[in-house]
Design brief:
CATH superfamily of the largest domain: Zn peptidases
CATH class of the largest domain: Alpha Beta
Strand content: 15-25%
Oligomer: single chain
Radius of gyration: 21 Å
Shape: globular
Number of domains: 2
Bound molecules: zinc ion
CATH topology of the largest domain: Aminopeptidase
Order of helices and strands: HHEEEHHHEHEEHEEEH
Number of helices: 8
Structural class: alpha/beta
Distance between the termini: 34 Å
Length: 309
């Protein structure tokens, strides 16, 4: 890992509050003088951009904002839809119980149906979104998404050393609030991103199964290049999947030509899964993942630049 990556890992893991983000941004500006802040949109997102998006052939992205700490893991099973639905219901149950309890109690106390109904609904929304979005910042965010941030930093250094040009880098804000920073970036760079490949790294440091989710245009144009650049090894298994039948909710969503990269674990019944994120156990930085992803991405970028007419 570069010195920059080490510093981010040791001193800038919590990036949720405005103050924490500002400290991170100031640090990044001091380390990378060409870094620009693009601020605007809903929640005044601050995306950090390095390089010229207009001229870029490929844009590498990763969200830098981090989440609230949750009492339960945010389990994601990209290929197991029944489990995803069941788990979603299971998590919502306590909030629904709270809502129903509130309504019954208020109905009993006030005998006013509308008051009880709307107050209970408000209690549900505030408690649900409060826990997920407005809770205490998680201090441990190694996988989600310090790993993606570090991947971009490492790739910046590799591209500089190897003279790979025409690559832009963007650190998205407010992914955890609903992919808000990346949607502002897309609005700002709409025509520039129409034909440009976006590769987004989110949760890449905990798990030996490398998952690549390609949307339709990306799979038509780049599937072969990805398959050649990322080959399964003794330790790492590659899964090239299509976005139409794979659930991976991150910033690549909505971009015209996009690929999501993440690291998964695999179990017999669950299939590919991601655990530990959004909890205090999010502490795993498998550097062999970082090396694997950076090597493959470098091969891919080199290959794509050879194919430029
Ligand atoms: Zn994430």
């Amino acid at each position: 890992m570069t010195e920059l990556s080490e510093k981010i890992l040791s001193s800038y893991q919590a990036r949720k509050t405005k103050k924490q983000k500002t400290a991170f941004i100031e640090f990044m500006k001091s380390e990378i003088p060409s870094l620009r802040v693009e601020e605007g949109g809903f929640l005044k997102s601050r995306n950090l951009v390095v390089g010229d998006v207009k001229r870029a052939r490929v844009v590498l992205g990763a969200h830098y904002d981090t989440c609230a700490v949750l009492p339960f893991p945010n389990l994601i099973t990209p290929k197991n839809f029944p489990f995803l639905i069941l788990y979603g219901i299971l998590i919502a149950l306590p909030f629904i119980a709270l809502m129903v309890g509130t309504e019954l109690l208020l109905n009993y106390l006030t005998d006013n149906f509308y008051f009880a109904y709307y107050t209970a609904l408000l209690v549900f929304l505030v408690s649900y979104f409060g826990v997920f979005m407005l809770g205490f910042p998680n201090k441990h965010t190694v996988n989600d998404n310090t790993s993606g941030v570090i991947t971009l930093c490492e790739m910046m250094e590799i591209c500089r050393e190897q003279g790979i040009h025409d690559i832009a880098f963007v650190f998205f804000d407010n992914e955890e609030m609903g992919l808000i920073g990346s949607s502002y970036f897309r609005k700002l760079h709409k025509s520039e991103m129409k034909d440009t490949l976006l590769i987004n790294f989110d949760c890449v440091s905990d798990g030996d199964h490398m998952l690549f989710v390609l949307n339709k245009p990306a799979s038509e144009r780049y599937e072969k290049a990805f398959a050649e650049a990322f080959v399964s090894s003794e330790k790492k298994t590659v899964h090239l999947e299509k976005a139409q039948n794979t659930y991976y909710p991150s910033d690549q969503k909505g971009f015209p030509v996009s690929v999501a990269v993440s690291a998964m674990k695999k179990a017999r019944v669950l299939g590919l899964y991601l655990d530990r994120i959004h909890t205090k156990k999010d502490t795993v930085m498998d550097e062999t993942n970082l090396a694997y992803i950076c090597d493959g991405t470098t091969r891919l970028l080199t290959k794509l630049s050879e194919n430029i007419p």
